[in-house]
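User: Okay, second chain of the day. Same drill as before: sequence in, structure tokens out.
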Amino acid sequence: QVQLQESGPGLVKTSQTLSLTCTVSGAAISTNEHYWSWIRQPPGKGLEWMGFIVPGGSAFYSPSLKSRTSMSRDTSKNQYTLQLSSVTQEDIAVYFCARRERLSPGYVDWGQGIKVAVSS
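Assistant: Same drill. Structure tokens below.
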């Protein structure tokens, strides 16, 4: 059974950088079969794909967030991270990490999500 768990601060100040970590158990993030994603959901809105890390470790980002987003992985810890810079009130959301199969667009496993607020 694959489990994902998000961790990080629940409160970030405006203009600072949000850093979140996803710890994975039950599967190696170095596998060639999966993409490791970050997805968020602002209050009252739908899910927004932020980006993913593909086999080999390269990251691909949503065009709307690309200038502020960085993702990386640590295979020795089986973790991957999200950094979102210059946060504003529009970044208030529940942030999820999720696993997607390389050859299928659906997400097979999700973390429980972490709620992030932004203070002025």
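The radius of gyration is 13 Å.

User: Thanks, on to the next one.
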